[in-house]
Every structure is written in structure tokens, then in C-alpha cells.
Amino acid sequence: MLYIELIRLWEEAVQLIDSRDWQGALTKLNQITEHNWRTLFTVASAHIAIGQVDMAIKALDQVIAKDQCLAVGFFQRAAVHIMANRLEEALSDCKWAQKYMRENPVIDYKQLGLRYKMYSWQVLYNAAAAHSRLQQWDKASEILQAASQERGVGRSNLVVTALEKVSKREVLIPLLVPEGEVFRPRKQEVEQLKPRNFLGEAKVITSLIPNDDFRGFDPLRPQTPGYYEPKVEGQDSRYMMTTSAYEAKGAGELTVPAGAQVFVYSVDDRDGLAIVIFDGKRGLVPKFLLQPRAKKNKDKNKRIELANGIPHPPALNPPNRPQGLAQPRPELRPSSASAAHTTPPMMSNSSTHIPAQQAETSAQEHESVMVKVHYKYTMALRVPLETSFRDLQEKVAQKLGQPATNIRLRQKKHGTAVLTPLDGDNGLNSLEDVTESGRATIWCQSEDPLANRTILYQMVALYDYTAQGPEDLEFSEGDTIDILSEVNEEWLEGHTAGDIGIFPRNFAHR
Questions:
Q1: pLDDT at 213
Q2: Is the peptide bond before 185 cis (omega within 30 degrees of 0)?
Q3: Which residue, among 23, 89, 20, 31, has the nearest Cα to 52 in the 3D structure?
Q4: DSSP string spanning 429-452?
Q5: Contact 467, 502 (CB under 8 A)
Q6: How far apart are the first and last CA of the chain?
């Protein structure tokens, strides 16, 4: 999922929460396919507001799984556990929340997008609320006395009222993050969702063309005389060239050199003068000095520029591929004078054996097949066409440096994407069964037979798990895990991708 799409859906959900449309906010949040812990906390807050306690607990479980040191996550889940009458779990979450506050009296989550300050006395208050529901009044009173010594806004009134309720054997209502206070995306990320005009408006700064106020990109107008022709309606305007130099003699006339390109506004007879533009100036020159501008074709390799001023595109031909340079053979320097005059005896026989060797190689290639093996990397080897399955397995295992019993070869049948094992039972006697046009493609996978072990059931990984020790099983989200034993209520022993180890139960789903 694109990150910009996540920010857009998250921002729309927060706006619906501000208008107290909790169901609409959940609809937006459910469209997010890759949640982070902040969006999951927002999902949990929406479920709490609707009254869906079980759904809120599941969302908070995922929040804590993604950030195991989030004190406000444990605090919020403890309050929801109290609402669901799961008091032992609530007390455990209160302990974890107090631990991850790291002896700080208050934590401000504003920089993370949550406009809420969590105080340590609030965590103690929820622990007392759990004890009050367990009818442990003395323990609840003791915790509230400790909370009265903590610092924080609003502590005194709530703690005093709670002590009075405990003395009367009344249960306490847990504290939650205020309704509507959720994690919000950063303001800078939301502003980037708005479209921006990075180009701005074009403005003419300088131009060789008189009174040029053109703004835009069409047509392409290089600022060189002879390319841009001003539009003059109803007149025969075009570029022409002067045959000789002319010096102005009267008012309104222009001085032009020989061979100059001028833009002619009109060639009407005005005492034999024509109105032209040259060098950014407008004036009169004799009409007999003007002649049509010819096409430029000085050389076959030169570009031809048309009279309308738009040049042809350059002729770009792809360069020839570089030829491989022959590597110079190293010179053999004799170690002694006698060696310099000694001719090796095999030199005379080597030339006679080359044709026979080439013929033998050609015959061998004709009766052999090129096998491409897909492993963690791809390798290729040439083997005789009549190679049996067992011999091929031995050759591949030797190439990989592994025992033949630890690998298994598979193939894809024609028209399918399923990898089928290649073994003697399926009738693979030689490579002729899987060879097409002198080539064969097979897949090699490592095998762990799990000897003397029983798979109890299978689970699917909900999150990525990185091994914390040599005995841990590392896996990625979505992997299938074979469960071999249950270590205790929280840890399982599993197998995946040829590895065996232990992992937390809450990282996978049965």
C-alpha cells in the first residue's frame, strides 16, 4: 500500500472522528491494508466509543505487538480489560505500563500525534479499580494512597473521591484516554496531499523579438532570429534576406548589412520600400534588396532548415556495439639461456590433436543437455542426456556442497506452475523425460525430514519475528509454521523453512 494512500485514509478517518462519526471512521480505517501502531490505536479508540470491547482488545493487542514499549497502549488496554471484566489481564497491563513509564511522572504524546498527557497516578488508579472489582479493598486503598503522593493535573479530586468510594465498598470506574483523542498524521504529511503547481506562471524576462508577451509552451520558440515569425493577419509576412548592405538615408529607414535576415511585414509599394524588422527595430528598406531565404544544404550531413524557421530534428543513430578486444597473450620469458633455445616437445603434436578434440567436444555437446538449476541462486551444468535421477541428484548436491539426502529436485509440468518432485516413483529414469530443445530447468529445495517429530497442527504468522537467541525460530508475516510442541502457555516450538525453534504464541494464529 502506498504511504500517501495510508495518510489520506488516516486523515479522512480522523476528520470523521472529530465529527463523532465513529462507524464512518472505522470504514475508512478498514480500507488500510498495512497498518502501523498509531492507526491501530485509532481503530481501537473507535471500537471503544461504539462499545465493541472485544474488537478494541484485539486492536490494542496488535498495537502492543508492533510497539512493545508503548506505555499508553498498556494503559488503554488495562482499562478495556477492566470493562470486559478481565481483571488479571488488567493488573498485568498496569504493571507493564508503570514499567515503560521508566519512573517518569508524566509522558506527553503530543510529538507522536496524540494530544494527551499520561500520568503515573492514572496507571495506579486503574490498578486500584481492578482490585476494587476483585473485592480487594485494602489493596485498592493502599494503591490509592500511593497515587495521592504522585504529581499530576486533576489528581487530588479523583483520588480523594476514589478513597471515599473504596471505604464504602464501591467499585471504581477505570480511566481511559479521552474520547476523540487519537493519534493523528503529521501536519506536514497532510499538507503534501494537496496538489501543488511547481512550475508556476511563465513570464517573459528578455526576448530578441520586439514586444514579445507570449506565455506558454506551444509552439516551441527558440529565441533566435529566423525561427519565430510574428503573426500578421491579412499580410504577406515572411523572412527574407538582403542581397547587399544598405545605409539609412531618411526618416524611418533602417541600416542593414549584406546577407541579413529580416522579417518583412509588407512589400506594398511605398516608393519602392518595404516594412521590415531587423535587430529588434522596425523600419523601411528598399524592396529590390530583398530576396527569398533559400534552404541550407551545404553538406549532406548538415541539417536542412525550412523557410518557416522550424529546424529538422537531429539525426540520432545508435552507435555500433563495441567489438571485444582480444586479450594479449602473456609472453613466456625463459628462466635461463638454455630454456630460451629449447622448443617444448608437445608443440609439434598439439596442432594435430586440436581437430580431434573439437570433434570429441562437439559430439559430447550433441549427446548432452544443459541443466539450469534454481536454488538460492541459479547455476547451470552440462550432463549426458542419459543421466538418471539419482546421478543428477548426486551431481547437483556435489555442486552445492551438500549431502544428496538434504536436497530435493522438482520440475514444472508443461502448462502448470506447480512444482512436482522428481524421484524414481514418478518414472524419471533419465533427463530425456524433462528435456526440451536440449535444455532442462529444475528447481532444487532444501529438505528437512523432521525425523521422529510429529506435527501437532499448523499456524500462520501474524507478524515478523526476529530471533532473540540461538534457540528462537525466525519467520516473516504470512509464513506457515508447523507446531511441534507447546512449551508453555506463551511459547511454542515450531518448524518453518527448514528451521526449528521456539517463538511467542501471540505472533501466530491457528
A1: 60
A2: no
A3: 23
A4: -SGGGT-BTTEEEEEEEE----TT
A5: no
A6: 26
